[in-house]
Write a structure and sequence with these properties.
This protein is an alpha/beta fold. The protein contains 8 helices and 9 strands. The protein has a 5-stranded mixed β-barrel. α1 crosses α3 and α4 (about 165-175) packs across α8 (about 260-275). It is globular and about 50 Å long. Bound molecules: hypoxanthine. Hypoxanthine binds near residues 116, 195, 196, 213 and 248. Hypoxanthine binds near residues 212 and 213.
Amino acid sequence: MQFYKFEQYNESALALKGRLKGFRPEILLILGSGLGFLGDEVEDPIVVPYSEVPHMKYSTAPGHKGQFVFGKLGGRNVAVMQGRLHTYEGWDFDDVSYPVRVLRLLGAQTLLVTNAAGAVNMDFSAGDIMMITDHIKLFGVSPLCGPNVEEFGPRFPDVSHVYTPRLQAVARKAAQALDMTLREGVYMYFPGPQFETPAEVRMARILGADACGMSTVPEAVVAAHCSMQVLGLTLCTNMCAGILDQPLSGEEVMEIAALSSKKFSALVRKCLESME
Ligand code: HPA
């Protein structure tokens, strides 16, 4: 872990501010595997590659471009992360969650975090969208490990409601308006990059998980720590290992993400439009 200091987050925020010509992002939208296309739908985009932000790491994962796109989406001022950082790329938890604090300093009060994940819940199907109601993370340290940065929040933050109930209500309504089924459930973090074993998937189910994925939790925890509201949307690209008698592949994840892209982007837009 790097144990970034407040001054470093501030330097990154100032560097971005210099590029934004007065634009003030309200919502940070992090796009998961195969969902980066939403960044191309931003109006009046200002694009800043991660490599041009001091202290920030870059994305190496397939389908993750590695740039911020600032502009309007669903009528809201958004900062889109077109490509996220993952711990399986070799980054630490505080590298992965770094941009959340930077965007907080730029004024964003909401995190809309998306991901592709495998479904653990047998009632789900590939292509389903699940709203995250809570999470489980047993692997690795907390992204808040190390000296607490008091400017962002307390040493021992309450995480009873990481995923803001008010925003969950917004997503339910948005799905209803679109006549779309929205699953709800618990997302369990696994470090990857290998998919889970069938035994791990059975464990996840016993522990109360509905989907397993390799992202999202570090960013959501850091957002909760600095009092941001969080909405988490998961695209279940596959049933987790051992459920169906077929091997999993990264290509399948991308394929299903592409097939579901219209529906996913409609839901994200509707949520953005209805958030206050
Ligand atoms: N497991 C973890 N992450 C994933 C999966 C999975 O089955 N599918 C897409 N991302």
